[in-house]
Design goal:
Blueprint (H helix, E strand, L loop, with lengths): L6 E11 L4 E7 L15 E5 L7 E8 L4 E6 L5 H6 L7 E5 L14 E6 L3 H10 L4 E6 L13 E5 L9 H6 L9 E7 H14 L7 E7 L12 H10 L4 H17 L1
Parallel strand pairs: 7-8, 7-10, 8-9, 10-11
Antiparallel strand pairs: 1-2, 1-6, 2-5, 3-4, 3-6, 4-5
Helix pairs in contact: 5-6
GO molecular function: oxidoreductase activity
InterPro entries: FAD-bd_FR_type, FNR_nucleotide-bd, Riboflavin_synthase-like_b-brl, SIP_FAD-bd, SIP_fam, SIP_rossman_dom
Protein name: Siderophore-interacting protein
């Protein structure tokens, strides 16, 4: 019998604009009394904000037993982006129970971290949690260069054209350290698939030596492209529709897309 994942109600206590690309949200309140961290360095939670029907997943930047810190990447569009860009302090959100996958072997002699902007919070937390020599490759805008812990060994990669990534090529050019270590990477899904193939076929690494995760999909990779709920939600609210009516509109649009 499957057990339903726990959900927690939380209030936005504080909001801080860290950069043009990051908003820090500090969540708290009595609804998080039973929240328990996994202790896994790349753990994430699902976040459901007011007016949103689906979870979006974010790295737990920190949890001190009372306050949960999430650093949200700000995109051009999207329900979480639009909500987080406004005055969301005091809003009540839903947080799912945390999960994580980082599993560096105890005898690893080194760690390589690679990722784009969406992976930066996880790379920062991992860097703080480990005590082995660590190198980082970060494909991020220059305004977040100070986000990683001081004295991190970082190779800053230029960000390509919108909704593209060159992380796969960067990994293929890495001069790997000697001995046994661990490789962790997250970013655009198509790039992650290419890297998994490289690690398996070229590097011939056992699956216990790496963790590669797709955090998001580029528009071009969506076949067929999923229905974007943001414009449906905006139009519905402008028309005075209830959340239930907007949800019905979203279902209808999704069904029409699948049948097209």
């Amino acid at each position: 019998m499957s057990t339903r994942a726990q959900q927690f109600s939380a209030e936005v206590l504080r909001r801080t604009q860290l950069s043009d690309h990051f908003v820090r949200l500090v969540l708290g309140g009595p609804g998080l009394a039973e929240f328990r961290s996994t202790g896994i360095a790349d753990e994430w939670v699902g976040l459901v904000v007011p007016g949103q029907f689906q979870s979006r997943y974010y790295t737990v930047r920190s949890w001190d037993g009372a306050e949960l810190v999430l650093d949200v990447v700000v995109h051009e569009t999207g329900l979480v982006t639009e909500w987080a860009a406004g005055d969301c302090v005091g809003d009540v959100v839903t947080v799912t129970e945390p999960k994580g996958s980082f599993a560096m072997p105890d005898d690893a002699a080194w760690l390589l971290l690679v990722g784009d902007l969406t992976a930066l919070p996880a790379m920062a937390r991992i860097r703080e949690a480990v005590d082995v020599p660590t190198r980082i490759w970060a494909e991020v805008p220059s305004d977040v260069a100070s986000y990683l812990p001081p004295e991190s060994d970082v190779t800053w990669l230029d960000v390509p054209h919108h909704e593209t990534s060159a992380l796969a090529a960067a990994v293929e050019a890495i001069d790997w350290p000697e001995g046994e270590g661990y490789f962790w990477m997250a970013g655009e899904s198509a790039q992650m698939r290419a890297i998994r193939k490289h690690l398996m076929r070229e590097r011939r690494l056992p699956t216990s030596a790496y963790d590669v995760m797709g955090y998001w999909r580029s528009t071009a990779a969506r076949q067929p492209r999923a229905v974007d709920p943001a414009p449906i939600h905006r139009a519905g609210k402008a028309a005075g529709k209830s959340d239930q009516q907007i949800w019905a509109d979203y279902d209808a649009a999704t069904e029409a897309r699948e049948q097209a």
